[in-house]
UniProtKB/TrEMBL annotation:
Residues 22-146 form the VanZ-like domain. The chain crosses the membrane at residues 12-34, 67-92, 101-123, 129-150. Keywords: Membrane, Transmembrane, Transmembrane helix. It comes from Heyndrickxia oleronia. This is VanZ family protein. Pfam families: VanZ.
Length: 163
């Protein structure tokens, strides 16, 4: 009985820790996506609705870009949304599932891109939607791998999929 109570306390503690991490992540993303100084203030609003146009540009003309710009536009978008795919299913059980994480990542990015365009704090780029969605999915895959490893290590003593 004490073991059950201890396990429950650990799960509650981890849930609080994950919510705290998510809050920090959310604040960081709001700052990066909407408030940071490098965000352009374009009164006309820029957009790209041609899939893979920006991705192709960064891959094909990689030598024309500063490494930081190149890396952040290709891999930064993926890395930025991996925590969403990892944390959301841990925090909200109804978001646990490949398709649900796909939809969450996709629609979250559509909202971000639209807000950036409307408020002129960045442009709308369909390639960002693609890369960010991939990031969310990869984050979920990492979560699945962590769960598998934790369950394997515990040899069935604890059920970590309920986290």
């Amino acid at each position: 009985m004490f073991r059950f109570i201890y396990q429950k306390q650990v799960k509650i503690f981890l849930k609080i820790v994950f919510w705290f991490i998510f809050f920090i992540y959310f604040c960081y993303m709001v700052n990066i996506l909407f408030l940071s100084q490098y965000r352009m203030n374009d009164p006309q609003g820029t957009y790209n609705i041609i899939p893979f146009k920006t991705i192709h540009m960064y891959i094909h003309y990689y030598d024309h870009f500063n490494f930081t710009i190149w890396f952040s536009n290709l891999f930064g978008n993926i890395l930025a949304f991996m925590p969403l795919g990892f944390l959301a299913p841990l925090l909200i059980n109804k978001l646990d599932g490949f398709f649900k994480v796909f939809l969450l990542s996709f629609f979250s990015t559509v909202v971000v891109e639209t807000v950036q365009l409307v408020f002129h704090v960045g442009g709308f780029d369909v390639d960002d939607i693609i890369l960010n969605t991939i990031g969310g999915i990869l984050g979920y895959i990492v979560l699945l791998l962590v769960r598998i490893n934790l369950n394997h290590l515990s040899k069935g003593k604890n059920n970590f999929t309920d986290m």
